[in-house]
Structure formats: C-alpha cells, structure tokens
C-alpha cells in the first residue's frame, strides 16, 4: 500500500489535483467494460507531461508498486482492471496533445491520452484520414488503442491500429525511455518494438508518444443496406463479396434479435422482419465506387437478398450506421449482464460460424444477439443474461467455451480486437502452444523483472 | 566445434546429403552481400522438413552451438555472416513449399525457404497480388524477407514485408514451437510475436512457417519516366507528388552517375545527359490511374521536368524498370568495393538529403552513385571505392558517418530496409537511446539465454 509519504511525493511531482485517493475516486477506477469483478486500487495518478509520466513510473518501480495504465477504460477483457489492492492506476488522460500532423509526409505524432475521434477529426480537418474506428472511438484513447490493437468497422479494407503505428516512445518498467520506429515509411533500425508494444495490454512498457500513419482520404463512397430473410444467405453474401475481390470499407452484420431490439430503441426504421441485414460501404475513386457497388449488388442478389436499399442522403446513412453503433448499448440494456465476445474466423467461414453460434445458443438455451464486422470475420455474439443467476451464467460460460472451440476449429482466433486481459487467458494455450505461453512469460519477465506492469493480464507472469 | 559424433547425429537426422562440412562448402557460407570480413562456420545444415528444423535447433541448443539462419544470403548488413568459427549455418532452402494460397480469404501459408519471386508468381497465377518486391526478389527467401523486414520498389503505396505478415510459427532458441497470429484479418490473441520476429535478424527465433496477406491485384497501371536537368528539381517533384495526395506504386530515382553507368552496360537508351530521372508507376482502377497520372504529370512540369516520357508498350516499360534494377549490379562492377547504404528520411526531406549526400561526397572526395526508392524517402547512396586503399576507405567511412548524422537530423533513420546486422550497430544508440539498447538486450537475453542465435547482430547480447 502506498504510504502517506509516498502520496505526498506524488503530489509534489504531479500536483495535488492529479493524485486521487478518495474512496469514490478509487471505486471509479476499479472496473472497466468487461464482465469481471472490480478491484479497488490504492491510488490513481494523472501525470500531465511526458517527464512526469516517466518520473511516476520510476518512483512506482523503485517502490515496488504495481501499475495498471488506463486511458478511457473501455476495455472489454479486463485489461484496465487493477491487478491488486496495492496497484496504482496511471491515467493517460492528462497527456492529450496532438503534437504534429504532417500533411507532406502523411504522419502524426500524438500523446497517448488523445481521444481517437478527436484525433480523427483533427486529421480530417487537414484533408487526411486516420482509418481505425473502434466502437468506443468517441471516448477511447490512442494509447489504449495501441495497447489493445483496436480494430473497428473499417478493418476489412484499412486494417487495424497495428497498421498505422509507425513508431512509439515508451517508458520501460524502470522508467527508462525507449524509442522505436520512425517518421519514415521504411525503418528497420533495431527490433520492431512498436510491433511488440501493440496489443501488449500495458504489460511491456508505458507509451508516452506515438507516430501514426495517415492516408489520403477516399474521394467518394456509397452505402447500401441489404435485407435477408435467411441468415445463412447473408453470411454467404459476405463470403461472396470478398471472393469477388471487392474490399468494402465497411461490411457489417446484424441478426434479427439485434435488429428488433435496436429498432425498438432507436426508431431507425430497420426492417424488423429481416433475419439479418448487411450494412455495406464501398469507397475510393468515384469510378471504382460505382464498379464496386455494382459488383456488391450483384453478389447480394445472387445470395437472395430480398431488398437492397441505398440511403437517399447522408442523414439517412448516418441513421443506419448509428443504429449499428447502438447495437451493443441497446443489447446491454436488455438484461442485467452483457457478455460481448469477439471470436473471429477467416471470412469464408462466416456462414459456418454463424450457424454454429445459433446452434450453440439453442443447445445451451441462452439468448444471443449477433452483430459485428462480418467482412473481416470478426463477429460479436453478445450473450444476454444475469450473472447473479448462477445456473444461467454457467450455461453462458459453457456456450462461450464451445464457441471458442468452434472458432479455433474453423482456423479462427479467440479474439479479433477485444484482447485477452484476464477474461480469455485460460483459452490462450488451446489456440497457440505451451511453448508460446512459456516464451511470452520469459519475454515479459525479462522486461518487467519485478512483475509490476499489469501482471495478471495476458499470459500472467 | 562440432564433434564427429555430433556431425554423425545430424547426418542421421537430416540425411548425409544435407550436412556440409567440406572447406569449399564452409567457404561458401562465410559471407553475404555486405562489405564485411567473412567468418568460416563449423558446419552447414539443410533440414528439409519442419520437424527436422526443430530437431536441429534443439540439438544445436543442447550442445551449445551458435546458429546463424540463412536463406539466400543476400543480406546487406552482415546478418547472415556466421558469428564465430564454431557456428552452424542453418539453411532454410530445403523448406520451400507453398502450403496454401487461399483466394477466398486472401492469405497464403508458406515455408521460410520459398523464393520471393516464385511466391509472387504463384500468387499472380491465382489472380492475387503479393506486393513486397525487394531488389533481390529473384533469389531472396520469404524467411529472409521476414527476418529483415524487406522493402522494395512498392513500399510507398503497398508497404513492406511487415504489412503482409499475418502470423508466424517459429522455433525458439531451445527448439520449442511458438505460434502467433492467425489466418484472420484481426487477431489480438496474445503478444504480437509476429511483429516482434519481423526484422529481428534471426536473433529471437527460427521461422518455420508464415501466413502472408494477399490483396486483389490492381486493374490497371501506367508508367512514366521524367527527365530533369537539375537534381534538386527531381527531388522537389518527389515531395510534390506525395503532397498532392497521389501514392504511386513506384517512385524511383536515379542520379546522373547511375544513369550513365547503367546505360553503358544495358544500352537501355536512358537520357545520359539528365541530372536525374524519376521512374513512376501509378496503379489501381483505370479511372484512378488516369487521374493520378495526370496529377503526376502536372507536378513534374511544375518542378521543371525537361521531358516526361510514357513507355509505348510493356516491353519498353520492362526495359526501363530493368535498368533501375540493374543499378546496383552495374555500380558494383565499377570499382572493387561497393558500399550500398539505405539511410532514409521523411519524404519531404528528400531534397535536403540529396543535397547533403552530394555535398558530403564532394567534401570527402569519394565517388557516389545515388538511386533508390525516392517515394518513400529510402535512397541508396552507393559508395564506389577500393577497400584495400586504407586512406580512401577511411574517407568513405567518414562520409557515411556524416550521412547518417544528416539522416537523423532530418528525422530519418539509419536503415530503411537493409537491416542493422553488424554493419550499423555502432550507430543504433545515436538514433534511439541507451535505454533502447539495454531494453533490446534484456529482451534477447531472456529469449536466448545461451546467446546462440546470431549473437553478434543488432544490439549484441
């Protein structure tokens, strides 16, 4: 536990207003967006300069105090839940400056606490484009996006956060500065430590600055909504679009349960009788957009879409996309507990995976609403339940177990974009190997010899 | 040194025909493409199955024998030169199967010894595209491309090897199997060890299999050659094209010295009086190609190109591009020693970097021919000299020193795509930090506790 003297030291270092120790404050940082038990930390620190961040890390290390770094706390696998009651939560929200947006060289330099959507908007103002758009972008931070390798709706065509990280500066566990990567398109100077920091969930270092790649924005785009009266047809259409070599920037799926519940709430005018809908957007050069949209419509019809609707204007498109973005919050209102999963399969396996999810839900008699990034094989089957009902929750856990087994059998993965945290670590070895776990543990022990950095996450330490 | 008994063990394991110990054989694997002293290894092993590879690594580890993995040996920074006289060179050339090319899910699975150009051709046959095209692609291997994060002519638009590595299986130093990444577009299951293996130069693990991303091929392309009578104008045009938000798939630069020497040799009909030429190719949807080519021509004219030439057919285009590919081999014929560098700067700094390279060459009275991937800031100033002339070689080394200082000052990097190896390790700390070197050494020591994997490369051990 942090002593009064140490708390005083931190107050001197970063200002009294940036050290939080009241019960109410500590409660606020005891949980994140995962369905896991909260852990109340010992103190919360909010450094506001890079130098302060480094000195905080050094002081925590010297005093043997565990650290959990936290951006907006939107983590869905428990990555931002403190490890122990003596943990210090280190907030990055005070490090929120966009340091450079370079239009000539197509990159930006940011601090970790910059909010994703704010950054994307600042970039758009300069007529450039930062594609990664995780569902939580309105509040999530770039540092958190890097630590989790956040995905989003555009992963299919534009990739994920990993594909935009050119370089990073971070503090190692002891507070030493490490620099890796560059402002250049090509850089092989030393280990690709930026690649190693991506999705390391705050266990290998504490990010202080990132260099992010930007791209010219697409000149045109076209949105479509396809309605299906059979879910398998929708799934086949997804596979068909990719096989036709069209890479839409968005290719989203909502099942009937999700459609009805979202429409109840948003009154977006969704087709409530549909077994499934696909929301599709193609972008690029205007001529390519026209060709791609035509190819997509052809595939949709071949796969028995009962209707293909083109939003008449930006407002209508926004309403439809907003309905998709509301899927999780709306489903989350239905029952006391929402378990949002992100098992991911190769795109051609979407039909098999969709079938399996519904069979598993029926077998274990659990309610599931499925939506997600169908175009990149990244579905979000969302289990609606009440954790206080032990018998029901056991069935949910069994269903999730079987769903992961299915994903792995279909050559997929446990987690497309939500991370391992503590929620999924028990399944890691099944997908990888014993050697992978041991290798990963050796790696982290070497870089964090006192085991202070988010130590219970991922493969443990 | 490997005992006779151990050599017999290896012969039993992988076949007598795959264990090389004759003087002539050992000589052949004592050097690579870098200007560095050869080191004759103790033996050379050529496993032909994944299982054999793992057993070789385990046996070498158990016997404390250093290992240097080698594909085609095209390394330009000494990464494939054996560390010591008791080193075993492990060849990947016997592991050269393309295991899967998946058209529906846009990925391939390959063994490390597959030759880059063979792979690209197999992919093209299925109407797909694998963009990374390092200069040595006709002989280089995918395993080597991963270990070095190989770049090439298309880096500007399509990225480098890193951007195509979805997953990898490798043996750690002890011979245990590690699996990371997936056949899915999104995967955050565990550490991004594939990202860590990229450009690790054979020091963290020995790759046995890789999952590579494929993309739909561009539907059209257009090539242009621009001629300049002032090198700075050419450099300004490069920066201008990117600033106009056009991303050509190729944007190559040749200076007068390179033009004349290549034309002498190839009779390609290059403009021998030009101060510099740019070779440019734009690709994509036919309408976008037309728009981009028009924008490029406009920028070229604004920057005083004295001629813009469009090859009349594929044969003429091939001849020009082949001339570019011949730049290095032709320059290498001119003097006994060729030192090919790859200092890289943000693209807008190309004019400043070009100016500095020529000023430095004049200052130290050394001959330099410069060509390279101007579009991604990755130039290849090539120093022509005779290493046996100690005085001259000292001037070359001083010039290179100053060139790196300039690259770093311009926010660039030591190495865009050739790697650190032993050739550039002394400059690493200047670009990064002491903390970066120590962090990297801790990392590798943990993963290679006996220090057997290419131990003198990168940051040492």
TrEMBL record, chains A, B:
UniProt entry tagged with the keyword Oxidoreductase: yes
Molecular function in Gene Ontology: FAD binding; oxidoreductase activity
Organism whose genome encodes this protein: Desulfovibrio porci
SUPFAM superfamilies per the UniProt record, alphabetical: FAD-binding/transporter-associated domain-like, FAD-linked oxidases, C-terminal domain
Annotated ranges, domain FAD-binding PCMH-type: 36-217
Cofactor needs: FAD
Protein name: FAD-binding protein
Lineage: Bacteria, Pseudomonadati, Thermodesulfobacteriota, Desulfovibrionia, Desulfovibrionales
Family membership: Belongs to the FAD-binding oxidoreductase/transferase type 4 family.
PROSITE patterns (alphabetical): FAD_PCMH
Keywords on record: FAD, Flavoprotein, Oxidoreductase
Domain of life: Bacteria
Classification via Pfam families: FAD-oxidase_C, FAD_binding_4
């Amino acid at each position: 536990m942090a002593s009064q003297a140490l708390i005083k030291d931190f107050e001197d270092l970063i200002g009294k207003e940036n050290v939080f120790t009241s019960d109410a404050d500590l409660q606020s940082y005891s949980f994140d967006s995962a369905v896991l038990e909260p852990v109340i930390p010992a103190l919360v620190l909010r450094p506001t300069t890079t130098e302060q961040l480094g000195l905080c890390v050094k002081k925590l290390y010297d005093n043997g105090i565990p650290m959990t770094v936290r951006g907006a706390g939107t983590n869905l696998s428990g990555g931002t839940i403190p490890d122990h009651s003596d943990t210090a939560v280190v907030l990055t929200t005070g490090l929120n400056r966009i340091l450079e947006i370079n239009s000539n060289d197509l990159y930006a330099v940011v601090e970790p606490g910059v909010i994703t959507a704010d950054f994307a908007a600042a970039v758009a103002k300069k007529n450039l484009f930062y594609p990664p758009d995780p569902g939580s972008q309105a509040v999530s931070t770039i540092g958190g996006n890097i630590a989790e390798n956040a995905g989003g709706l555009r992963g299919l065509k534009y990739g994920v956060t990993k594909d935009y990280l050119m370089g990073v500066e971070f503090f190692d566990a002891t507070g030493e500065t490490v620099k890796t990567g560059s402002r250049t398109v090509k850089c092989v100077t030393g280990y690709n430590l930026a690649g190693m920091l991506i999705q390391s969930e705050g266990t290998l270092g504490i990010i202080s600055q990132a260099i992010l790649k930007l791209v010219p924005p697409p000149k045109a785009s076209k949105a479509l909504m396809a309605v299906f009266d059979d879910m398998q047809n929708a799934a086949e259409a997804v596979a068909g679009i990719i096989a036709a070599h069209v890479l839409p920037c968005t290719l989203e799926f909502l099942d009937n349960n999700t459609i009805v519940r979202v429409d109840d709430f948003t009154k977006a005018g969704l087709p409530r009788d549909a077994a499934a809908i696909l929301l599709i957007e193609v972008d690029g050069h205007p001529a390519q957009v026209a060709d791609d949209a035509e190819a997509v419509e052809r595939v949709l019809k071949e796969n028995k879409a009962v209707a293909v609707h083109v939003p008449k204007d930006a407002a209508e498109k926004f309403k439809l996309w907003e309905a998709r973005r509301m899927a999780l919050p709306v489903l989350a209102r239905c029952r006391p507990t929402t378990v949002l999963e992100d098992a991911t399969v190769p795109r051609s396996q979407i039909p098999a995976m969709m079938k399996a999810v519904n069979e598993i839900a029926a077998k274990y008699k659990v309610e599931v609403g499925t939506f997600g990034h169908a175009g990149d094989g990244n579905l979000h089957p969302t289990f609606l339940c009440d954790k206080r009902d032990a018998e029901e929750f056991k069935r949910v856990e069994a269903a999730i177990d079987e769903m992961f087994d299915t994903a792995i059998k279909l050559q997929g993965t446990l987690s497309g974009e939500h991370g391992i945290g503590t929620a999924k670590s028990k399944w890691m070895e099944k997908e990888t190997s014993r050697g992978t776990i041991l290798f990963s543990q050796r790696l982290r022990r070497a870089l964090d010899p006192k085991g202070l950095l988010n130590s219970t996450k991922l493969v443990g330490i």
